[in-house]
Amino acid sequence: NFNGLTEIISGLNNNSVHRLRKHWESIPDPVMNVFNELAAICDQQQANKNMREALLRAPPPCIPPLSMYLKDLTFIEDGNPNTIREMINVFKRRQLSKIILEIKQYQQTPYHLERVPWLYDVLTNKLFPEKVMSDDDMWERSLVVEPRKKD
Fold it and tell me: Looking at the DSSP assignment, which residues form a beta bridge with residue 146?
């Protein structure tokens, strides 16, 4: 689930979480190594090169990061005219088609998922028992958990 991976890495890199230096330093090196490897996959440098390579290596079924494809479609749409000398820009249409077909490919393999009761309980009752917090609320909570240093 590369889309989920992207969302998790993004959440952990949120300013309210990223600033918790003491907590990050307490994470064992092997766990941080895995985190750094996964964060490298989600790195958006070079048009998501690492993510695209990981997607090519991943056996189906697979959930690609929707944000990457939306960005691709936006660049194609905004960066190319609809017509060239009053003729339909076929190149643009082919580029859009290529992206859409790639996304569609991921929809062809069915998923056989089963609910894992303990994981469902953790996600619904322990991690997220309240409403989703705003960025301001998360920042305030991070200051309670780890106050700013006074120099």
Answer: none
User: Which 3 state secondary structure label does DSSP give 107?
Assistant: coil
pLDDT at 129 over 80: no
Specify the residue for token string 């993004």. 10
Q: What sign does the dihedral 88-90-95-100 (CA atoms) show?
A: positive
DSSP strands (E only) in 1-151: 83-84, 87-88
One-letter identity of residue 134: S
Q: Which residue has better confidence, 91 or 141?
A: 91
Using an 8 Å Cβ cutoff, are 51 and 61 in contact? no
What are the φ/ψ torsions at residue 88 (nearest 5 degrees)? -60, 135
State how far the Cα of 91 lies from the Cα of 82, in Å rounded to an integer. Answer: 10
Confidence at 149, pLDDT banded by 50, 70, 90: confident
pLDDT at residue 128 is higher than 80: no
Can you read off the two tokens belonging to residue 104? 């569609």
